[in-house]
Amino acid sequence: MASKKEKSGSSVGVSVEAGSYRVTRPDSADAVIDLIRQHEVQIVDLKFTDLPGLWQHFSITLPEVHDGLFEAGIGFDGSSIRGFQEIHESDMLLRPDPSTAFVDPMCDTPTLSVICDVVDPVLRQPYSRDPRYIAKKAENYLRQTGIATTCYFGPELEFFIFDSIRFGQDQHSGYYYVESAEGDWTTGRDEGAYGGGNLGYKPRYKEGYFPTPPHDTLQDIRSDIALTLQQVGVQVEVHHHEVATAGQNEIDMRFATLTRMADNVMIYKYICKNMARRYGKVATFMPKPLFADNASGMHCHQSLWRDNENLFYDAQGWALTSELCRWYIGGLLQHAPALMAFCAPTTNSYKRLVPGYEAPVNLAMSQRNRSAAARIPMYSDSPNARRVEFRCPDPSANAYLAFAAMMMAGLDGIENKMDPGEPLDRNIYDLPPEEARKVRQVPGSLDASLAALEMDHAFLRKGDVFTDDLIDTWLAYKRAREVDSIRLRPHPWEFYLYFDV
Fold first, then answer.
1. What is the CB neighbour count within 10 angstroms for residue 307?
2. Where, in this chain's numbering, is Mg(2+) bound (predicted)?
3. What pLDDT, on a 0 to 100 scale, did the predictor assign at position 20?
4. 387 labeled part of a ligand binding site
């Protein structure tokens, strides 16, 4: 099933290279209005991100689109948004960012989507809990330090596409059930009810990387997603099936600046989910939906630049990295327990971050070694390619908050010349126990990561990037809505373990 391939763009604005497309993003209210006329748009959809990291939206008709919309904004009820306002302070404003506008390829009605910033209508200032505002403040702080002018991020978001998912829990029962024709567990299933006999070719557990079709049944879906992303100005470099059975995928976007990449992550998730739905399937960025196979991560490649110079490169340095790069890594490793509260922010994240299994829980740096938390990719010796890959985050993260937090940790490492320790270029999983005990690890639960954030957040407060209000709200929300709600409910496996005690 093919997606619509209408190229979006305007004759005025900022050009963005996207593979074979040259997408021109508008840079003003007039340019947005020109884009609306050019594509005969009928609806404008205003999108913004709640505190946990899910896109919210509402739509307006064309008579409501004028210069005042982009200057003064439009009102909405902030008390109905997770992590935002209380009922007595509910009035909030959305201010559309013209540079984010794109013709929405997932809507049948001609629709222009615009990402918005959230504004406090009383103070007439950006809202302190708006995740996008925090990302922008982080970029401003970077420039103020004089260390660099730009931070680039290149996240690798993995995700699953299932045929269907069922789940539920009440006071006396609980279950989940995943359906996937690719699942290794379906080799013996009579699939007559699914439109034919069992066709075999199921990727075995941990063997989904990189068999061709017919093992890989999702090639066309991923291609449609990739081309649709390029259509809206998000450049894609590669896509492929990932390690796990049952439809694990990865589509890699070309790196971009911190806030722009966080915008791109939101577009990526939106298009993946909606394209899967067009095919009658369902996409999920939940880190660990399957037992006994690989989970989904979001390895984050990052580097600091001053204008056109990559500050992480040194031809004489270890792994071609500069001292500044290694200090940045030192900051990531030092603050990693607190970072996980934003980078691995769900209870399910810690089903992935289990010592001795596939996820990188070990707080060490290495070149090439995927068992270390901080890795220096060695595919190229080009100065422009030198970067650090921080491998602990997962795609359940709010990208605005996670990217900002990682960069702030790295900057703190530079400012305090934090030593990341000696490179660990061996397989950490095979270290003798006495050596393994010396390697620090990320926390083993969301509760522990939140406690680490509570104890260690001064580095986030620099430049007023993360406010105390934001951090306190995040801690309270996560503890009440997620940690406690999981702790209060019996797990199905506990019946197996303990019913006969």
1. 7
2. 156, 158, 242, 250, 299, 389
3. 42
4. no
Sorted by where each begins, the domain ranges of the chain are 14-126, 150-498
C-alpha 29, offset from chain centre = 29
Q: Is 242 annotated as a binding residue?
A: yes
Q: How far apart are CA 92 and CA 184, in angstroms?
A: 49
Residues 139-184 pLDDT 10s: 999 999 999 999 999 999 999 999 999 999 999 999 999 999 999 9
pTM of the model: 0.94
Residue 457, marked binder = no
Is 17 a residue whose pLDDT tops 80?
no
Taking CA atoms, 291 is separated from 327, 390, 392, in Å, by: 37, 24, 19
State residue 22's pLDDT score.
56
301 is in an annotated binding site: yes
φ/ψ (deg, to 5) at 474: -60, -45
Distance CA 102, CA 113 (A): 5
Q: State how far the alpha carbon of 175 is from the alpha carbons of 70, 167, 458, in Å.
A: 46, 5, 41
Among candidate residues 97, 92, 85, 79, the one with its CA nearest the CA of residue 120 = 92
Q: How far is CA 65 from the centre of its chain?
A: 30
Query: Active-site residues: which are they?
Result: 77, 156, 158, 242, 250, 299, 370, 389, 391
Q: Could you say which of 3.40.630.10, 3.90.190.20, 3.10.20.70, 3.30.1360.120 is the CATH number of the domain covering 14-126?
A: 3.10.20.70
Section 8-25 average pLDDT: 48
| 6 has a pLDDT exceeding 50 | no
Determine the average pLDDT of the residues in 98-110.
97
Which residues touch 327 (CB under 8 Å, ≥6 apart)? 413, 414, 416, 417, 418, 419, 420
